[in-house]
Design a protein that fits this description.
Ribosomal Protein S8, Chain: A, domain 1, 69% helix, Alpha-Beta Plaits
């Protein structure tokens, strides 16, 4: 019983404990449920808040996008309105331009009609004038045309005759082909240096302090120097240089040598100046003799009198149009020798005649007479052969040339003096002459370009082919040559060449 009792009591306890546990479990579940419901409500509230915030943000963005779209639309509408206004303005301008074109077309039509009326009136007037002229002249238009053609024929015959004369002269001058070949060969073989002519000589000095010593106290040194040399001493602001001026090249060379020696010595005073000038004169005389001896060696001439050699050496300091006369004499001797070899003349006479042909230029400033006659007298006085003397006195045809050798010397002298680069023309006069030739050619209608070539001996004219035909080119050449003959002075002949060129171009693809 006790066991049953204890068992019953234990079972009751278990039941009671289970009930208590159940009660406690139910109470906890309710509490948890309440907390869950609270959390759910809180989460729901937060979700609603977040959803509302998100909705508000989306709405805000939508509003901003709508505002931006509306602003862009307004901007596009403004641009569209501006484009419409510009289009309207352009249409208005086009309409105005169209009206102007219509007015211009009407003006052109009116002007065309007026020109047609004027042309008809002009034709009627020309007809009346032609009738009146025929009545006044007593001839018909055909007769006047025939008379004009006859005059043109006469002019053309005169032009033809003149051209024939020119061609005859050219044929005579160029008849002997062998002579042309000889001249060309000789001119190509012979060359020489050209020295520019000058009337002043510059003497370098070590420093400008020497200028005061050259001048001397109260100018006594410079006065003594000019009195001893016969040359002017120019002392200016040119740094480290003193200029010696004088027309006589020999005296100028003496002055240069003396001044250089005085500057080198440093002791400049009147007595030393006179001694230096005398010594310089002796040196220059020796230079002249050496130049004469070297000239006869270069020309391969022997047997000349010493006085002729000395006189020939003076040509070292003589110039003509920029050409040194001693070099010119040697070159003329070479040319004459070559021509004599080619033509079968006396070579030695031509050689010596070419060397001595300008001998008189060494003394023509000291004696009266032309240099040809003075040179012939000097050569005759010192036993030069008569044939050579004749070449000297006839080389400028003051005496009529009678021998082949005399003509050869004349030709050699002309070649040496006229070859390109031998002598100088005034640059200003040369340029003015070429400009005048080109301006005369450019003054004619139809000329596209004009060039003065070959040192002004030819005018080359390029014409526009659409403005000048072949006959017009011939007339243009004749008219330009006549204008040059009437308005200009020139030596020799000037050739007028008219070039008319047509070109056709096509491209192959």
């Amino acid at each position: 019983m006790d066991a049953i009792l204890f068992a019953a009591i234990g079972l009751a306890g278990v039941i009671a404990g289970a009930g208590a546990v159940f009660m406690l479990t139910r109470s906890g579940a309710n509490s948890v449920l309440r907390r869950a419901e609270a959390d759910a409500r809180r989460y729901q509230d937060e979700a609603e808040v977040r959803a509302r915030a998100l909705e508000l943000d989306v709405e805000k963005r939508a509003i901003e996008r709508r505002d931006a779209a509306e602003a862009q639309l307004r901007e596009e509408r403004r641009d569209l309105n501006a484009a419409e206004r510009r289009l309207e303005q352009r249409e208005a301008a086009i309409e105005r331009r169209g009206e102007g074109l219509e007015r211009g077309e009407q003006a052109v039509r009116d002007r065309t009609a007026a020109l047609e009326r004027a042309e008809r009136e002009g034709e009627a007037l020309r007809a009346r004038i032609r009738t009146d002229l025929e009545q006044v002249a007593g001839m018909t238009g055909a007769e006047a045309r025939q008379q004009l053609l006859d005059e043109l024929d006469n002019e053309l015959r005169d032009e033809t005759a003149r051209r024939v004369r020119v061609m005859e002269a050219a044929a005579k001058s160029e008849a002997d082909a062998r002579s042309r070949k000889v001249l060309a060969t000789v001119m190509q073989r012979i060359t020489s240096d050209v020295t520019a002519e000058t009337t002043v000589t510059v003497v370098p000095i070590a420093s400008d302090e020497l200028k005061g010593r050259i001048i001397g106290r109260e100018g006594r040194n410079i006065r003594a120097f000019e009195a001893a040399t016969g040359c002017d001493l120019i002392i200016d602001d040119t740094p480290e240089a003193v200029t010696v001026s004088g027309f006589d090249p020999v005296r100028r060379e003496i002055a240069r040598v003396a001044l250089a020696r005085l500057i080198q010595d440093g002791r400049i005073q009147p007595t030393r100046i006179e001694a230096a000038v005398e010594r310089a004169r002796s040196e220059v005389d020796e230079m002249i003799e050496n130049a004469g001896r070297q000239a006869i060696v270069d020309a391969e001439v022997t047997g000349l009198h010493p006085e002729i050699v000395k006189t020939l050496g003076k040509l070292r300091f003589r110039f003509s149009y920029g050409q040194n006369q001693l070099r010119h004499s040697i070159e003329t001797s070479w040319l004459a020798t070559a021509l004599a070899h080619e033509l079968g003349a006396d070579v030695e006479i031509c050689r010596l005649g070419g060397l001595l042909h300008d001998l008189g230029k060494a003394v023509d400033r000291e004696m009266e007479g032309t240099h040809a006659r003075l040179g012939a007298d000097i050569a005759r006085r010192f036993g030069v052969p008569r044939e050579v003397v004749h070449c000297i006195e006839a080389h400028h045809e003051e005496v009529r040339p009678e021998t082949t050798e005399a003509f050869i010397v004349i030709v050699a002298d002309a070649i040496s003096g006229s070859r390109p680069g031998a002598r100088r023309e005034s640059a200003e006069q040369y340029v003015k002459r070429l400009e005048a030739l080109e301006s005369i050619a450019n003054s004619f209608d139809g000329v596209e370009q004009a060039f003065a070539v070959q040192a002004g001996r030819e005018v080359r004219i390029v014409v526009r082919p659409e403005a000048v035909d072949d006959l017009g080119a011939s007339r243009l050449a004749r008219d330009v040559s006549k204008r040059i003959e009437e308005t200009m002075q020139y030596p020799g002949e000037i050739r007028v060449t008219v070039v008319r060129e047509t070109r056709a171009t096509s491209i192959a693809h």
